Amino acid sequence: METHRINRLGLHGDGxxxxxxxxQGTLPGELVTGIRSDSRLEQVRIIEPSSDRVKAxxxxxxxxxxxxxxxxxxxxxxxxxxxxxxxALATHGLDAPLRPISTSPPNxxxxxxxxxRRTKSxxxxxFHARGSDTVVQIPDCQLLHxxxxxxxxxxxxLARIGASRKGELSIQATVSLGGLDIAVQGGKPLDAALRTxxxxxxxxxxxxxxxxxxxxxxxxxxxxxxxxxCKVTPPPGAFLQATxxxxxxxxxGIREVLAGTPRIIDLFAGCGTFALPLAESAEVLxxxxxxxxxxxxxEGWRHASGLKQVTGVTRDLFRRPxxxxxxxxxxxxxxxxxxxxxxAQIPELAQAGVGRIAFVSCNPITFxxxxxxxxxxxxxxxxxxxxxxxxxxxxxxxxxxxxLPKTA
Length: 408
Fold this sequence. Notes:
The chain is α/β, with parallel strands linked by helices. The protein contains 9 helices and 22 strands. The chain has 3 domains: 2-53, CATH 2.40.50.140; 78-105 and 240-407, Rossmann fold, CATH 3.40.50.150; 111-225, CATH 2.40.50.1070.
């Protein structure tokens, strides 16, 4: 056994002591013992607990890999996530005013990807244990919205009839206005018998839509998502913000940055999460690489009333970023790239001279990298708002306002 004092948390939520040595489930300041395996400490026991240590609210916290920080107080997690952003900015010589964190409540996740395996006696459904392919059952998960918990018996039955004994189903479940929207990958190839069985399950569980290996098996009603005044039917498995509360916090920051701007470009627009609400007061050019998402956004806009023009464009912004001249005539930009950031798009945007940029990010490291280019081009960071949609996890999201001084 070795004894270590934990000095800090890493980006994945593990405690880190001198060496370095990594100890899952520990907090800064704690004295711990365990058996060392390479750089990891296993069979960890807490000798001197931190004052920030709390009893995990979920009984599955130690076995499930879905949450990394249930053993830490809410105040500690909020402060740590704020500090992750501060440190990422400081690495690039940047500083910015951080507003108090906005944290989604328990039982608010409206989408999740479940893992399901067929067994001799039935099926196992849940999340993977951390660093393992073992499926941990979580019948009373404290993260998921109550309507999303209804996906567990659905997933179990889908595994019984559609999973091979050696394979594993990946089941994306999303709460929609019409009921559960289920998209399955990793199942058996479709044949007539399986189609019939899957359609029967979709009807029995009153699913809004069931998709198997990207093919729609049944759609009882449209799995619509509210986006401002619009109702949008995303393509199966499409990206959606994890919680309604988190989405609204991000949107509030965007609206603040772009208030009064008559023409906006939304980059990496998805299905219109931000473009459609912004169209209540501004014309929007929405650029997205997935044609099906653009089509869903366009349909939602066409069936709504009282909105200004939304023009959807399908374009891969990693391979073909908008050039600086294409921003001419626009006074505001929404930038919401995936975790890799917007490395190809940022240089063109920095030179375009658009007065206001609302930057949404799910990765503080790539955000800080891209923010540095904007600051070097003359932008000021007006604020950073950290948004914690993935409660009890190490995941950090944010929205920030960038302003050119002449238009601030």
